[in-house]
Amino acid sequence: MNPNDLTPLVSRIRLDFRSGVPIYTQVMEQIEQLVEAGVLQPGDQLPTVRALAQELRVNFNTIARAYRLLDEAGIISTQQGRGTYILEARASEKPEDIRAQALQTLSQRFLQDALRLGYQPDEFLKILEKEITDWRQSEEK
Asked: Among residues 108, 95, 118, 117, which one has the least CA distance to residue 38?
């Protein structure tokens, strides 16, 4: 993918600003899906954070966060001064393993933030269980 031609990527990313799902999560999941579907191939260069943010009309930090989490999950690699590229999937890793890693990274970051704010693990667990229950109930409707 040519990083100067944003059309192929931008035309495939659909953001729902009313869904309640954070925009960075939507971007991250959709890039993962494009990799899994073979639309984005290992070695393809992604647009810069700034360019993609401008095209999607979202905050620069939103795309930066999505790219950072994708990088931490081993899906992309950002090389200072060179750009951001889709990584070659490790032979031992299946797409569902990569997704699980991304979720684990998100969970760890969330837990660290909660602990920094002074929440105790029991408080966190209680709130998380309530959120999951509410989420399941809203999915059933």
From this structure: 95
